[in-house]
Amino acid sequence: MKFQPDRSNAQTISGYGPGWIGVDAEKITHSVILGSGGLRQAWPCTRFEDLTPDHFVQLATLEAELVILGSGTRNRFPPPAWLAPLMARRLGLETMDTAAACRTYNILAGEGRNVVAALILET
């Protein structure tokens, strides 16, 4: 039996800490949306309390099978009414703290899943 490391073409999170994440060789210090297919865009919120229904409308327009919401330093849940655009597209949302969201994103992206992570990086 031959063993070799798993390889993935997906964009991955290489590290994280308070107020930053590493994506491949870049250090990001603002909230961001990442997709396993290479999507990387700023997300205009600096803390969970900045979220509005429009943030979830934006997430619903993305081509993904699952969205992971990294809600900052602790796990918090958006109001259920804000999730209507995601539910209308039958798009799943998982909410967890940002550190857990980074780890979960890497696992799913490494499996070849079409996943998007919306990560709040609190300053």
Structure description:
This protein is an alpha/beta fold and 123 residues long. It has a single domain (13-119), classed as MTH938-like (Hypothetical Protein Mth938, Chain: A, 3-Layer(aba) Sandwich). Helices cover 21% and strands 28% of the residues. The protein is built from three helices and eight strands; from the N terminus they run E-E-E-E-E-H-E-H-E-H-E. It has helices at residues 53-60, 84-88, 98-110, and strands spanning 13-17, 20-23, 26-28, 32-35, 40-42, 66-70, 92-96, 115-119. The strands form two sheets. It has a five-stranded mixed β-sheet with strand order 5-4-8-6-7, covered by helices on one side. Strand 6 (66-70), helix 2 (84-88) and strand 7 form a beta-alpha-beta unit. The longest helix is centred in the C-terminal third of the chain and has 13 residues, at 98-110. The radius of gyration is 14 Å and the shape is globular. Residues 1-5 have low confidence and may be disordered.
| CATH class call | Alpha Beta
- Structural classification: alpha/beta
- Fourth-level CATH superfamily: MTH938-like
Which percent range describes the beta-strand content? Answer: 25-35%
Cα-based radius of gyration, to the nearest Å:
14 Å
- Element order, helices and strands? EEEEEHEHEHE
The name CATH uses for the topology is Hypothetical Protein Mth938, Chain: A
Would you identify the CATH architecture? 3-Layer(aba) Sandwich
Number of helices: 3
* Spatial order of strands in the largest sheet: 5-4-8-6-7
Oligomer: single chain
- Residue windows where pLDDT falls under 50 for at least 5 positions: 1-5
What is the makeup of the main sheet? 5 strands, mixed
Mean pLDDT value: 92
Shape estimate: globular
Helix content: 10-25%
Pfam families: DUF498
InterPro entries: MTH938-like_sf, NDUFAF3/AAMDC
Protein name: Xcc1710-like domain-containing protein
